[in-house]
Amino acid sequence: MQSLSALGSAVGQLLKERRQTLAVAESAAGGLINAALVAVPGASAYYLGGGVIYTGASRSALLGITAQDMANLRSATEPYAKLLAQRVRSNLGATWGLSETGASGPTGNRYGDAPGHACIAVSGPVEAAMPPFNSLTKATWRQAASR
After folding, report:
1. N or C: which end of the chain has fewer CB within 10 A?
2. How do strand 96-102 and strand 117-123 relate by DSSP bridges?
3. How far apart are CA 46 and CA 96, in angstroms?
4. Mind listing the pLDDT tens digit for each residue in 36-93?
5. How far apart are CA 107 and CA 90, in angstroms?
């Protein structure tokens, strides 16, 4: 968590300097992104809120994303990450929306994405999504399981 705290602090500092705000929707990270941001003293100056959007029910209830919005989309993809970022930014009135979606482990998700598969997007003055990447390996899971 120490490296996440350092990253959260750096992001918070930039947002405070620019007088900008952030809202977060995450999935496979399970709240770690939100935790890293709110752990920074003074986070209320830039952090407007966020949630773990882990199921269709949470997607609907917390972000108002409908079945129609999801037509031709699936979780753990760039287009889905963009939708999450746009919706959380809009719903909370933030300068920036940040989203993460993917597959946690040790078995991945029901779409066949490997554990550690992740898509990240931002919405705001710049709209962007990172191509899917894999942050974990089987060795990482074996090491974590042995602890």
Report:
1. C
2. antiparallel
3. 10
4. 999 999 999 999 999 999 999 999 999 999 999 999 999 899 999 999 999 999 999 9
5. 33
Sign of CA dihedral 66, 67, 68, 70: positive
Tokens matching residue 62: 């917390």
Q: What is the dihedral of CA 2, 36, 52, 67, to 10 degrees?
A: -120
Residue with structure tokens 């899917």? Answer: 132
The pTM assigned to this predicted structure is: 0.86
Give me Rg for the CA atoms of the chain.
15
> Which residues are CB-neighbours of 131 under 8 A, at least 6 positions away?
78, 119
Q: Do you find a cis peptide bond into 115, omega within 30 degrees of 0?
A: no
Domain boundaries, position 49: 2-145
- Give the integer Cα–Cα distance in Å for 136 and 130: 16
Encode pLDDT of 97-137 as tens digits.
999 998 887 788 888 888 888 899 999 999 999 877 776 55
CB 97 within 8 Å of CB 85: yes
Evaluate whether 83 touches 73 at the Cβ level (below 8 Å): yes
Provide the domain count of the chain. Answer: 1
